Amino acid sequence: SKEVRKKLDLGDDLSFIYVGGFHEEKRLDLLIDAFLKLRKKYENIKLILIGDGPTRVHVEKQIEESGDRNILYLGRIIDGVDAYFAAADCLVLPGVGGLALNQAMYWKKLCVVSEADGTEDDLVIEEKSGYRFSKGDLESLTEAMERRINEEPGKLAEMEENARQLIVEKS
User: Fold this and answer.
1) Are 7 and 39 in contact (CB under 8 A)?
2) At what angle are helices 153-170 and 99-106 packed, to 10 degrees?
3) Which of 5, 44, 88, 117 could cross-link to 98 by cystine, CB 3.0-4.6 Å?
4) How many Å separate Cα 130 from the centre of its chain?
5) How far is CA 2 from the centre of its chain?
6) What is the DSSP string of 16-27?
7) What are phi and psi of 27, to 5 degrees?
8) 49-89: per-residue pLDDT in tens?
9) Alpha-carbon gap, residue 107 to 86, rounded angstroms
10) Full-prediction pTM beyond 0.85?
């Protein structure tokens, strides 16, 4: 993870990550919009996008039009993807999905999620192991991501440990 952080020039920046398919129902457009809203207020955050799919061209266009160099699209990564989960600070699932939750939480990463595939109800518990937002709601997603940005270090460490324990015990 240290090599990935160095390669991506993450430094001390807080990094949000999305890993998964690029499909309309995954709502990557919503994630990018929320991130761009947060960038108006926070300089030291980055967004890492890993995956591929039918909406890739639209995602790349949205990133290009934003002009924000803190959005990093890395393409599809299968082998070695765990290093990216470990290097990032927080997984965001803006739409449907859920498989990435287990992987992120194994690495003690908090997750931001609304409705995924049902596993989120057991795994992502507000302010215990992550943050929840209202499905499809830009303001709600932005606020959930901001809660992660502003979380107190002691509470953050406790939540990260809770996330890992939920995976070890339930999964």
Assistant:
1) no
2) 120
3) 117
4) 11
5) 18
6) EEEES---GGG-
7) 60, 45
8) 999 999 999 999 999 999 999 999 999 999 999 999 999 99
9) 5
10) yes
Position of tokens 């959005």?
71
Query: Both ends of the chain: CA-CA distance in Å?
Result: 23
| Total residue count of the chain as it appears in this document | 171
Q: Strands, DSSP E only, in 63-109?
A: 71-75, 90-93
How many CA atoms are closer than 13 Å to the CA of 32, on its beta-carbon side?
A: 22
1 with 83: CB under 8 angstroms?
Answer: yes
Residue 71's DSSP bridge partners are 47
CB 63 within 8 A of CB 73: yes
- Would you state the structure tokens that stand for residue 160, as one six-digit string? 């990260």
Gyration radius from the chain CA atoms: 15
Residue 123 in tokens: 């795994």
State how far the Cα of 133 lies from the Cα of 113, in Å rounded to an integer. Answer: 6
